[in-house]
Design a protein that fits this description.
By secondary structure, the chain is mainly α. Helix content is 82%, strand content 0%. The chain is elongated.
Length: 100
Amino acid sequence: MTSSSKSQSFAASANLVAFVCASISFVTMAIALCQIFTGHHPSISAFAVVVCTLPVTIICTVISLILFGVRQSKLALIAIAIFALQFLLGYIAMTILMHQ
């Protein structure tokens, strides 16, 4: 959508930041799920990581979509999909634990 090299590099950075935030949140959630399934109680920091990284990911994805469009913002869209996957895995884990 934009031809300026400055805006392209900014949008590429926004893509990368969105993906890194989502990856950090996913790893933290995976560690928390492992702690839950082994009988330990995860700390509140796992929730704090999700709360802190979700808004950053959404903002960076929106910036990317505005500057690049859907076709060139695939990394940011993958980041949003990672967050959706986290909530889906959390729901599945909760369902499994409630039936034990």
